[in-house]
Design a protein that fits this description.
Blueprint (H helix, E strand, L loop, with lengths): L4 H4 L2 H21 L5 H10 L7 H11 L3 H17 L8 H37 L4 E6 L2 E7 H24 L20 H12 L13 H27 L7 E2 L19 H23 L10 H27 L2 E2 L1 H8 L8 H12 L1 H18 L3 H6 L2 H4 L4 H7 L9 H14 L2
Antiparallel strand pairs: 1-2, 3-4
């Protein structure tokens, strides 16, 4: 059964993965005749979490920085003097940590995929259902032009489709394991090191690295940067939903969470809490990405900067999963209010269609002259509290070219959507290719 990301990176699961790597290393070396087969069997038999004093390892990790040394010490003791001497043979802590990390990252990316797919499915449904639902398109906080909610959802969807492509590309190139020894050269195993590395990676189902990557963390940066981008796109959707659910907008609402305490003080108020969880998690993933970039600057063959990554990578995955899970809740239960959207379109009394009036008059008066004329008409309409069309109708320059009927047709926001509906269809068609 698939595990949650938090479980994959839990203390217990991490130690179990380290034991798995130690056991696989012993098996590979025994198969190649480097250590006795009986010793490998003993190591595999004792490489179980139940035989570890986890509390002691946790305490010792404060001193050693990583759990490998105390884990190896306990596993060695469990195997006895005869066989324990072959535990961790020719390896270093970073070999076990990096290979464990590869196992965790590859599994976790697989857990991200179904959440992203569910979000894509929800966005497809919203874009399709609201393909023609008119609403205000806003830029810099003000009304810009009419769009449809389906168009807005399709824009969100397009970003998620690109993230889906990135995720597939990452999963087609699973993260490599690591077995390189202290200096990266596998010197402790003489000329047998590459044989061990190859068999170890086959045993664990991991790609074999070309050369040690202990001091080259670009793969980790690539993966966490992907998570940060994905969470950022999710956070943008949540931010839009949160804003449009405000009293002054009233166009959307996240699903009702139930209960009476969405606000501790105001009985009538329901705060967009799920959206808040999405945005908070997105910010935290972004911060993790910055930390991982810092860990990339390891000195020489390896240095203490790696501890930044050790702390940040699990947190990035856990928060990314939280981000997507909450966005999925928002989208699957999203409430849309088309009537309020249409009402908000009329708030500016036609000012939102200023460009349309300008483009209709420009062939007759020239674009710049028309720009200034429509600007004056919009200003007058705002000051008078009247419709822009009415102001334009009484302007002689306009009346020569546009009668009342033409102005009324131009005042229909549904007629000024450009290629929006075609673009919605294009995005939905692209999504269908990957469903």
């Amino acid at each position: 059964m698939p595990r949650a990301v938090a479980e994959i990176f839990s203390e217990r699961a991490s130690l179990e993965s380290c034991l798995l790597v130690e056991a696989a290393l012993a098996q590979a070396q025994a198969e190649l005749g480097i250590i006795p087969a009986e010793s490998a069997r003993e190591i595999v038999g004792h490489a179980r979490i139940e035989e570890l004093d986890v509390a002691h390892i946790r305490e010792q990790t404060k001193r050693t920085g990583y759990p490998i040394a105390p884990l190896v010490r306990q596993l060695t003791a469990a195997c006895g003097e005869q066989h324990g001497r072959y535990v961790h043979w020719g390896a270093t802590s970073q070999d076990i940590l990096n290979t464990t990390l590869a196992l965790q990252v590859n599994e976790s990316l697989g857990q991200i995929e179904p959440e992203l797919s569910a979000i894509i499915d929800s966005l497809c449904e919203i874009a399709r259902a609201h393909r023609q639902t008119l609403m205000v398109g806003r830029t810099f906080g003000g009304h810009a032009l009419p769009i449809t909610f389906g168009f807005k959802a399709a824009v969100w969807l397009s970003g998620m489709l690109r993230h889906g492509q990135r995720l597939r590309a990452l999963r087609e190139r699973p993260m490599e394991g690591e077995f390189a020894g202290v200096g990266g050269t596998l010197a402790a195993l003489g000329e047998r090191g590459l044989e061990v590395r190859a068999l170890l990676m086959r045993t664990l189902g991991l790609p074999e690295p070309l050369i040690t990557w202990a001091s080259q963390r670009d793969r980790i940066v690539e993966i966490i940067a992907f998570l940060a981008g994905l969470a950022g796109s999710a956070g943008k959707i949540a931010q839009d939903v949160s804003e449009l659910s405000g009293t002054d907008f009233g166009e959307l609402a996240e699903p009702i969470s139930g209960g009476k305490d969405t606000s501790s003080a105001l009985p009538f108020k329901a705060n967009p809490i799920y959206c808040g969880h999405v945005m908070t998690a997105a910010s935290l993933v972004g911060q993790c990405a910055m930390s991982v970039l810092g860990a990339m600057r390891q000195r020489e063959e390896r240095s203490i900067e790696g501890m930044l990554e050790y702390e940040s990578v699990p947190h990035a995955f856990v928060q990314a999963e939280r981000c997507l899970a909450n966005l999925r809740i928002v989208l699957e239960g999203l409430m849309v209010f088309p009537i309020r959207m249409r009402q908000n379109l009329g708030l500016t009394r036609g000012v939102i269609l200023a460009e349309r009036y300008m483009m209709a008059l420009a062939p007759h008066l020239g674009r710049l002259a028309t720009h200034d004329l429509v600007h004056d008409a919009c200003k007058a309409a705002v000051q008078e509290g009247s419709d822009v069309a009415a102001v334009l109708a009484r302007m002689p320059e306009v009346a020569k070219h546009l009668d009342a009927r033409a102005l009324a047709e131009l005042g229909d926001p549904g007629g000024y959507l450009g290629s929006a509906l075609k673009m919605v269809d294009d995005v939905l068609a692209e999504a269908a290719k990957h469903s």
